[in-house]
Specification:
globular, Rossmann fold, seven-stranded parallel sheet, single chain, 45% helix, alpha/beta
Length: 395
């Protein structure tokens, strides 16, 4: 009896990766798929499939236990926020252990090595070190929870994809919107390592992990296996937009210099607090409190009674943002997360997945981007006049 005849429990089923997992399981003739959802209203994409929608919450053990029931295989795609990443993984593993599951596939991330992986982290055996990034550090903790339950007999496999893209991916939808508003800049020409993972390549790896007995207890990087840079990824999206966007470029050194000019945390916080204090929205809320109305109303009346020029000066003073103003003609300044992500130099090695799982990426980067482009048109992120070509779809 193969995995297709087992009851498969999928978490994160309403998300980008989990939704595609459910679709592919049905395509692969899985006889019984259980999708964990918070509410059925949030599951329009998978509601059309012949699968069971199980309402529950990974952080609520009772609802999770009811939804899990007698499941035999787990594909854990749910992410979570903060320590919830760790607690939800622990709760799910406890349910899996109690049920005696036959396989537990944990979707982790290459970000366990940080937003800017250090040289030497190309292979899975590289030691994990916390970087202070909440998401990355909690994914490390979640992996360690998986390792503990592995020692207790749960047959677990860990997959570490990187930049997972494809239809429905926020990587593409956010990037298209940012490009339209000129809120993208290539750092050092876009030379940073991107490590793309087309979503169907990842699902192929998941299915291989279900059926390969040598996968238990192992961790695998999963990417497209190509040396795709951030310049490649961003330009591929920019080329979809009409009229074509001229991409701004900025050096790593210039980004760091402009970061250095920005106000510190205390000064920025005080400015934002003052702006909030004198905002109309907050004023209307506070004035509903009788004591606050009595104490603060005179201050706002004084502000409103000032001559227009003086009032504009005060408001402009209070409106100064938490970051240094952008000088006219200056290149867009990437935020710290984009900076850290774009400046990595490590390309992850998928040799272990190839040798042990028999994994081979079926969708190359150019074909994956054409599929994304078709979906972006379908989902109205691109206009009908944007360029599109079918020539690469059959490659």
């Amino acid at each position: 009896m193969g995995w297709q005849d087992k009851t498969i429990f999928v978490t994160g089923a309403t998300g980008f990766i989990g939704g595609r997992v459910c679709e592919r399981l049905v395509q692969e003739k899985a006889s019984r798929v259980r999708a964990l959802v918070h509410t059925v209203q949030r599951a329009p994409r998978i509601a059309r499939l012949p699968i069971e929608l199980c309402v529950g919450d990974l952080l609520d053990r009772n609802s999770l236990r009811r939804a899990f029931a007698d499941s035999q295989i787990v594909v854990h795609c749910a992410s979570g926020i903060g320590r919830g990443i760790v607690r939800s993984t622990r709760n799910l593993l406890q349910a899996a252990q109690a049920a005696g599951v036959e396989r537990f596939v944990h979707i982790s991330t290459a970000a366990v090595y940080g937003l800017t992986p250090p040289p030497g982290s190309e292979i899975e055996q590289a030691p994990l070190r916390r970087t202070g990034e909440e998401y990355c550090d909690n994914k490390i903790r979640a992996e360690r929870v998986v390792a503990r339950f592995l020692r207790r007999g749960v047959p677990a496999v860990i997959l570490r994809p990187s930049i997972v893209y494809g239809p429905y991916s926020a990587w593409s939808t956010r990037l298209i919107e940012a490009l339209r508003h000129d809120l993208v800049a290539l750092i050092d020409g876009g030379s940073g390592a991107c490590n793309t993972t087309y979503v169907d390549n990842l699902v192929d790896a998941i299915l291989l992990a279900l059926e390969n007995r040598h996968s238990v207890g192992e961790t695998f990087f999963i990417t497209d296996g190509e040396r795709v840079t951030w310049g490649d990824f961003i330009r591929a999206h920019a080329d979809m937009i009409v009229p074509n966007r001229k991409l701004a470029e900025i050096s790593k050194r210039e980004v760091l210099a402009r970061y250095h000019k920005q106000p510190g945390v205390w000064r920025s916080s005080l400015r934002e607090a003052r702006t909030l204090l004198f905002s109309r929205e907050l004023r209307l809320l506070i004035l509903k409190i009788p004591l606050c109305k009595q104490l603060l109303a005179p201050v706002w009346r004084e502000l409103e009674s000032m001559p227009p020029e003086r009032r504009r000066w005060v408001r402009e003073l209070l409106r100064n943002g938490s970051t240094a103003p952008q000088v006219s003609g200056e290149t867009f300044l990437p935020d710290p997360v984009d900076f850290a992500t774009q400046t990595g130099t490590v390309f992850f090695d998928i040799g272990k997945a190839r040798r042990t799982l028999g994994y081979e990426p079926r969708v190359c980067f150019s074909q994956g981007m054409k599929l994304v482009e078709h979906w972006l048109h379908f989902a109205n992120y691109l206009s009908d006049t944007s360029p599109i070509s079918d020539s690469s779809l059959g490659d």
